[in-house]
Amino acid sequence: MLFRCCYFFAFLFFSIHTMASEAPSAAEAFEACKPSLVQRAVESGLAQTEMKAVIDALQYQARVIELDRRQPEFVQTFPDYFSKRVNAWRINKGREHYAKHKEFLQKLNNQYGIPPHYLLAFWGLETNYGGYKGKMPVLDSLATLACDPRRTQYFTQELVVALGLMVRESLSPSDMLGSWAGAMGHTQFMPSAYQNYAIDGDGDGTINLWQSEQDALASAANFLSQLGWKPGFRWGREVQLANGFDYALIGRSNKRSVSEWAKLGVSKADGSSLGQADIKGYLVVPSGHTGPKFLVYDNFRTIMRWNNSEFYAIAVGHLADKIAGAVDLVTPLPELPTYSLASIKKLQTFLNENGIDVGRPDGILGPMTREGIRTAQRRNSMTADGFPSKELMDMAGVSTN
């Protein structure tokens, strides 16, 4: 009996060990995936011999998968995000590049309606004016993601487009360095954006977003124009809200004309009148009622089509204003507690348990959660700005750092 028992466990251990050793590694699965990538490239019209040679030489990038899976532990606050991106170095460097490219930037403004300081702000935020364009091999990174089951279709298409760009612009794979997700050049275009919007700005007959600053700036102008930029209008502005302002009026669903906002007690940041205008906008309060508030217009949404983040759009807008000579924010950035994703999940659970439906707790401060916070704040006579203040978190029994 003992012999049979020992034999059984020995057999089980051997079987499990054998199965584990036979399971393909990620690198082996990547190699097995390569023929399908060659086929997709050929189906798009690229030469089979060249594509096979290029794709066969690509290497699996474990770091790419690690970064793709990485989840932030903490929720980044607006003051932390903003202060790291809109700083004296970027402002001064932007002004230097304005002087360097003044005539060319004005030409782009005349053609596309994008003022120079906005193009410089995008450039500054994306790559520090070309100082850091990424060091990951783009084709290897895209192939790694294309062979990963999470977003195969999207990254396979981006890889095929990148291979086409390589051929079209006579690039070598070693030239094509960028972010871990495949964004490239001075303006960090994904391959599809490169294909659809990049243009020859310096007139040399090629489009090289790595080497040519003029190609990159012209491409950014064309991209923003195609995304819907409205010439002659600003992105938004910092504003003040009157005492007792109803914070239920903030957010994209509450667009009103400048004239209407003025009647509701909204003024410029220095306290002067907004004036009378039909242009419509909505209020963004990214760090609660103690921090700066912004009235934003249609071009703010265009910036968000480049990068779907309100923090990013405010940073681009204000950096552009500063490059053009505007003053600092009037309302200082507040000191805020640090919230972990786990803390926000606990808050969401608290709201749900108290009859305020914010959906499945996920740690994300999305529109539904912010509206739930406003509801809880109104119930408890707090300023209903939709921001998870320490007062609310204490009430929910959630600790902050």
From TrEMBL:
Gene3D superfamilies, alphabetized: 1.10.530.10, Bacterial muramidase, PGBD-like superfamily/PGBD
Keywords: Signal
Domain Peptidoglycan binding-like, chain residue ranges per copy: 343-394
Domain of life: Bacteria
Gene Ontology biological process terms, A to Z: peptidoglycan catabolic process
Molecular functions (GO terms): peptidoglycan lytic transglycosylase activity
UniProt protein name: Lytic murein transglycosylase
